[in-house]
Amino acid sequence: MNAAAPIGIFDSGYGGLTVFKAISDRLPAYSYIYLGDNARSPYGDHSFDTIYKYTLECVEWLFAQGCELVILACNTASAKALRTIQQKDLPKKYLNRRVLGVIRPTAEVIGNFTRTNKVGVMGTRGTINSQSYLLEIKKFFPHIKVFQQSCPMWVPLIENNEHLLPGADFFIQVYCEQLLLQSGDIDCVLLACTHYPLLMPKLKHAFPDYIKILSQGEIVADSLSDYLERHPELENRLSKGGEKQFYTSGDPKTFDEHASIFFGAVLRSKSM
């Protein structure tokens, strides 16, 4: 076994820490490296080409640290870069490495949470405009109708730690109302941004009680556990030891101040 083959977790900033927390809780034996590209965040409004370029650079950096498996814990990167990396870059340069995203695992199970077959998806402009959730959910549940709502103000509110203040209520309420205006039969809402679970207390007040609100962390963690069971040839190469390392392309002090909100623990990061 390669003793220096941690699982890489990548996000454009802080939100992926909510996915990382769920993964590390579900699979504590493995070692992990988290990389946040905070210097170039947010990714949501960048072009496909720019997001692909940024994501590939970060994936290759994680590969250089010994990671054989990288999780794109970012909906925008999963929507705009994952397929190209899987189909173009891995076969050409990294045959034995794997890169997985957060969209497909969610699409595979979302049908289990709706009775009306009307599902809402809330995300950044980049994720919503990519239509990735529409396409992926249709593959697994062609009978489900998907209604999308972009929420451009939510990430800035969260990253400035203002999301639980009374001033955030307007922006939470307005996007929720805009989604429900599209269909009164929505009974399941997917939070298609890894920042959004931090809004859960306010979202539960904004939506009727009968609406199930899904965050992705536990879904992705369960999917990864299943993936590793099905791919022992990869799992056997991963290092075990429970180590967690955190890196940022931005300022480590600033990262540490914000990251604890997402990870639920005090962190000590390094510059990449």
Secondary structure blueprint with pairings:
Blueprint: E1 7-11, H1 16-26, E2 32-36, H2 48-64, E3 69-72, H3 75-80, H4 82-93, E4 98-100, H5 103-109, E5 118-123, H6 125-130, H7 132-140, E6 145-150, H8 154-159, H9 169-182, E7 188-191, H10 200-206, E8 212-214, H11 217-230, H12 232-235, E9 244-248, H13 252-263, E10 270-271
Parallel strand pairs: 1-2, 1-3, 2-9, 3-4, 5-6, 5-7, 7-8, 9-10
Highlighted features:
272 residues; alpha/beta; six-stranded parallel β-sheet; four-stranded parallel β-sheet; 13 helices; 10 strands
Largest pleated sheet: 6 strands, parallel
What is the general shape? globular
Q: Percent helix among the residues?
A: 40-55%
Provide the succession of SSEs: EHEHEHHEHEHHEHHEHEHHEHE
The average pLDDT score comes to 94
The strand count comes to 10
Distance between the termini: 26 Å
Strand order of the largest sheet: 4-3-1-2-9-10
Structural class: alpha/beta
What is the alpha-carbon Rg in Å? Answer: 18 Å
Provide the low-confidence segments as ranges.
Answer: none
**SS summary, helix count:** 13
- Percentage of residues in DSSP E strands: 15-25%
Task: Describe it.
The protein is an alpha/beta fold and 272 residues long. Helix content is 46%, strand content 16%. It is built from 13 helices and 10 strands. It has helices at 16-26, 48-64, 75-80, 82-93, 103-109, 125-130, 132-140, 154-159, 169-182, 200-206, 217-230, 232-235, 252-263, and strands at residues 7-11, 32-36, 69-72, 98-100, 118-123, 145-150, 188-191, 212-214, 244-248, 270-271. The protein has a 6-stranded parallel β-sheet with strand order 4-3-1-2-9-10, sandwiched between helices. Helix 1 crosses helix 11 (217-230) and helix 5 (103-109) packs across helix 7. The protein is globular. The two termini are 26 Å apart. The model has no long low-confidence stretch (mean pLDDT 94).
